[in-house]
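Handout, tutorial session.
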Amino acid sequence: MDIPMNMGAAEQARLQTQVDAFNKTVGNGRQVQQELGRDDFLKILLTQLQNQDPTAPMEDTQFISQMAQFSTLEQMTNMADQFSRLNTLLAAGQASSMLGRTVEIADGARMIQGVVNAVTGGELPQVRIGDTFYDVSSIQTILE
């Protein structure tokens, strides 16, 4: 927004402050992304196709290259999802292998030793020693 020049300096400053405050409230709730995702890639590709010059259309090789890049992006996204699932399964497997084992757990500055008598599943599995649950990641030592 351009500020009219026939306003005094105080009025211009007040108006600029109001504009800045409004712009900040409009920006709340939105998070700035530093990376482009697959939806952004498709939007760019569609915009490029819609706005190309009919007398000089996009080269076939360019289009094929962009489609290959999109395919690669899609496969990488799927792989990341699969690795996340695999990580969850491995964490659950590690936790269940602790059942009946004696472990040492770091709980702040103190070490707790005991037999694991229960295990929870999920993304962040926990083991129970006595009546208290601890994250599997806090296990320091597994004893025989």
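The second record follows below. Compare its token runs with those of the first.
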Amino acid sequence: MGLRARLLALPRFADATALIAGDARWSYQELDLRARRAGAALAAAGVAPGDRVAVCAASSAEHIAAIVAVHHVGAILVPINPRASAPELRHVLEDSGASILLADSTTRPTLIGLTDRRVYDVVTLSQGEEPPALAVADEDIAAIVYTSGTTGRSKGAALSWRALVTAMATLGAAWGLGPGDRVSHALPLFHVHGLCVGIYASLLHGVAIALHSRFLPSTLLDDLAAGATVVHAVPTMYSRLLETLALAPELAPLLARARLFTAGSAALSPDVHAAFVGLGGPPILERYGMTETLITISNPLAGERRPGSVGLPLPGVEIRIVDDDGCELEAGTPGELQIAGPTLMTGYWNAPEATRAAFDGRWFRTGDTAIRGPDGYVQIIGRTSLDIIKSGGFKVGAREIEDVLARHPHVVEVAVIGRPDPEWGERVVAVVVARPGVDSAALAPTLAELARLELTHYKQPREIVFVDALPRNAMGKVEKAKLRATLSVSAAPDP
């Protein structure tokens, strides 16, 4: 059985629940039937193997059926953020060459006004009978997922069936996913976290998916009360959940009902991890992945889930940490994390130069700076280009400073960046969101003192800037490039 056929073999889970979304409660048999009919409708509309089909819609049961339908006809899925701006939409559509768009009632008017491509409704895409039988190679492209664009215009990572199914099969085995699980899923479906970890890994292992179009702590708690065993989330979701439980501590025992909470897409604060465990939840399992590599490193299911670490390489994955010259570094020395293995993207769609620049032979250059401990655990320090600040000849990791300042009770969140400085090369700048009603002028020296007490002198912020909110992309990652470009000069005096 080919890898694509392995994912599409949904009837093997028979009447087990596949999807719970709004009023829909579909078994795997029903999901398979609806996806096949939708696939037949796509084939009747002229969609052929290798064609790109863009899906731009809110999360729903019909959305999942449409995703599976695209794969039934051998087309390439191009998931799109339904809240993307018009320029972003145009870029993805033009770059991918998508010939057909699948939308919902919310996104369809925008897409029709934006392009002359055919736009179909995911809800009514169920008119066919049976999609054609196809022979699809494991190396064929299954999906083109566009990067978050934190460092420039988004690029489409072309993911083969080999990469996609291998990664999700490995992850499912590592996390013990199976038909007895139910996942609470409120992540967006245009990113590998929500699409691959949340959907593909679940379908591959017969997991029931409680699907939501947006995250609400109350909804997650309801899912736990209803029997959810697995939760996939980003750190901001856990922060919001903790805020809710602070107001309703009687609900905290619900955390113990799930066997697995995972975190990814951004760094999880050790303080959030500790607070979660303190309320009775199991240690949050942090893992590491990228659009271009899928999930490659994970804390163990059985074993130490180390706060501040993304864990150990998954089976079949090779990693190395190198210096600026590409020489491998010893354990404990920070450098760029590079990854090799079967889960890597084939390349960036229609971007051969960018693809060549992204690889060093068989090694993918992640652009993340990491340290590997003597026992193999990996810690991500930050983005090589954005989170490593070179000041006075020293390399300063933004994450360490952020963790210190974020512990102050009057700080909601903080991002540390480097600002050009004629003397030091870059000066360390802390951009802080303070709690409502807090006097920032009084808070600045307090934070400076905290930094003095806990950080080496060259790591201490030379400026503290207060803003109402940090700019974030659709996955909740702070856009530090945008922050550096637009940051006002209203900084507190040098501490």
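Points raised in discussion: Residues 19 and 209 are 5 Å apart (CA to CA).
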